């Protein structure tokens, strides 16, 4: 069904989008939470209706600055302004503006002229704040054009086959035969990844409930691969969160050995426990970081240590386009300090002769390469730099990730 169909027949879908936009921009709600709230309020919607509201909301958020500038309204989210922004979005998306009283104040020719004008200005075309455009250009130079363009595209949906149960090829067959999902492909550079051409709610599938896969970007999957774990090892995931990489590490270890998942938030570790049960992962132990003592007690115990540290999240703007309006320079500087603190205080959990991976989902060298240079300069007597990888979104068509591999000197 087209956007025009919904406009003509189901105005309440459009107004639901407006509700989500108000929550995102006026109430600083995360986009996924705002959309989830709208979905809960409309439980009778079918899959198409839900997809329409979700997709259009994300599209508008992704192109917010361009749409607001081209519509000629201020950023006050009155209903009139929201209709102007929505009309501009329809024109931007290639539709002829339909006959409707909602769009009477909108001059279609003028909107097209404004879209063409602003499309020449990178920070407006890619809908990012001025400060972010300045930082991107400063740190990435000419590459910034391609990087930010890639980060402003719709993401694909990528699954990680749970190799405790299946393989990527077998997962493709299961999805096709049992779920009628036929638009899958393998990703050559990410060995456990299965990509879906068209995103859909895979969490309702039997294959998901059976633990056959997790939803995880292909570049994110490569972090655990880079740590080069082996069955029987003692591994610590020190910033585990809800445990996507923890579960991958356990699968790579074939459920043999031990994975200790640390995090400061107990609710995330509780979620990890649920996910572990579904994925048939039996070697994960969760520990809440109560104080520095939690980390000190684990000194010199890990064969492998993963530090997937807090970061700006600028590598995952495709999935979280609203975060560019919630982030600021002060926050980036704050997380850089946190990254150095974690590197300094957590790295000693690695055994002598053991290895550590430092990873961030950021495209900024100041959160990646430069942090590792600083660490080696400070702790080079204890650590040897082995190598690093950067998965840049314009090259890999995936989220932006940086990872470095280091070995504790004997």
Q: End-to-end span in angstroms?
A: 63 Å
Q: Give the CATH H-level superfamily of the largest domain.
A: Vaccinia Virus protein VP39
**Major sheet:** 7 strands, mixed
Secondary structure: helix percent: 40-55%
Fold-level CATH name of the largest domain? Rossmann fold
CATH uppermost class of the largest domain: Alpha Beta
Write the layout of secondary structure elements.
Blueprint: H1 3-9, H2 11-25, H3 31-41, H4 47-62, H5 64-71, H6 79-92, H7 108-118, H8 122-125, H9 130-140, H10 143-151, E1 157-161, H11 168-179, E2 184-186, E3 193-196, H12 206-209, E4 213-215, H13 218-226, E5 234-237, H14 244-252, E6 258-263, H15 266-278, E7 284-288, H16 292-296, E8 302-308, H17 323-326, H18 329-346, E9 350-360, H19 369-379, E10 383-391, H20 393-396, E11 401-408
Parallel strand pairs: 5-6, 5-8, 6-7, 8-9
Antiparallel strand pairs: 1-3, 1-4, 2-3, 9-11, 10-11
Helix pairs in contact: 2-3, 2-4, 5-6, 5-7, 9-10, 13-14
Describe the protein.
The chain is α/β, with parallel strands linked by helices and 410 residues long. The chain folds into 3 domains: 3-151, no CATH class; 160-215, Alpha-Beta Plaits, CATH 3.30.70; 222-408, 3-Layer(aba) Sandwich (Rossmann fold), CATH 3.40.50.150. The strands form 2 sheets. The chain has a 7-stranded mixed sheet with strand order 7-6-5-8-9-11-10, sandwiched between helices. Strands 2-3-1-4 form a 4-stranded antiparallel sheet, covered by helices on one side. Helix 2 packs across helix 4 (47-62) and helix 5 crosses helix 6. 42% of the residues are buried. The chain has helices at 3-9, 11-25, 31-41, 47-62, 64-71, 79-92, 108-118, 122-125, 130-140, 143-151, 168-179, 206-209, 218-226, 244-252, 266-278, 292-296, 323-326, 329-346, 369-379, 393-396; strands spanning 157-161, 184-186, 193-196, 213-215, 234-237, 258-263, 284-288, 302-308, 350-360, 383-391, 401-408. The protein is built from 20 helices and 11 strands. It is globular.
């Amino acid at each position: 069904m087209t956007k025009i169909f919904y406009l003509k027949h189901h105005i309440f879908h459009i107004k639901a989008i407006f509700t989500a936009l108000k929550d995102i921009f006026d109430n600083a709600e995360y986009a996924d939470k705002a959309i989830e709230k709208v979905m809960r309020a409309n439980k009778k919607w079918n899959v198409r209706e839900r997809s329409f509201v979700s997709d259009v909301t994300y599209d508008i958020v992704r192109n917010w600055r361009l749409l607001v500038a081209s519509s000629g309204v201020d950023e006050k989210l009155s209903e009139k302004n929201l209709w102007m922004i929505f009309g501009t979005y329809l024109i931007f998306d290639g539709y002829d503006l339909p006959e409707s009283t909602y769009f009477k104040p909108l001059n279609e020719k003028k909107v097209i002229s404004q879209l063409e004008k602003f499309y020449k200005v990178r920070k407006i075309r890619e809908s990012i704040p001025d400060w972010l455009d300045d930082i991107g250009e400063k740190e990435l130079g000419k590459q910034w054009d391609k990087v930010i363009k890639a980060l402003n595209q719709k993401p694909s949906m990528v699954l990680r086959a749970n190799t405790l149960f299946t393989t990527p090829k077998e997962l493709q067959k299961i999805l096709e035969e049992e779920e009628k999902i036929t638009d899958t492909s393998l990703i050559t550079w990410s060995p456990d990844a299965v990509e879906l051409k068209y995103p859909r709610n895979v969490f309702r599938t039997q294959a998901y409930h059976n633990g056959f896969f997790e939803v995880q970007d292909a570049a994110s999957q490569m972090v655990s691969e880079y740590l080069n774990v082996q069955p029987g090892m003692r591994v610590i995931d020190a910033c585990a969160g809800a445990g996507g990489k923890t579960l991958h590490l356990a699968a790579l270890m074939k459920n043999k050995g031990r994975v200790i998942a640390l995090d400061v938030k107990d609710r995330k570790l509780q979620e990890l426990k649920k996910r572990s049960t579904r994925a048939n992962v039996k070697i994960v132990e969760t520990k809440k970081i109560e104080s520095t003592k939690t980390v000190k007690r684990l000194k010199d115990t890990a064969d492998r240590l993963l530090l997937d540290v807090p970061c700006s999240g600028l590598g995952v703007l495709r999935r979280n386009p609203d975060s560019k309006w919630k982030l600021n320079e002060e926050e980036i500087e704050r997380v850089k300090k946190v990254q150095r603190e974690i590197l300094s205080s957590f790295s000693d959990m690695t055994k002598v002769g053991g290895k550590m991976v430092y990873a961030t989902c950021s495209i900024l060298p100041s959160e990646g390469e430069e942090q590792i240079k600083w660490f080696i300069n400070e702790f080079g007597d204890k650590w040897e730099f082995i190598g690093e990888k950067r998965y840049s979104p314009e090259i890999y068509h995936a989220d932006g990730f940086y990872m470095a591999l280091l070995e504790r000197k004997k």
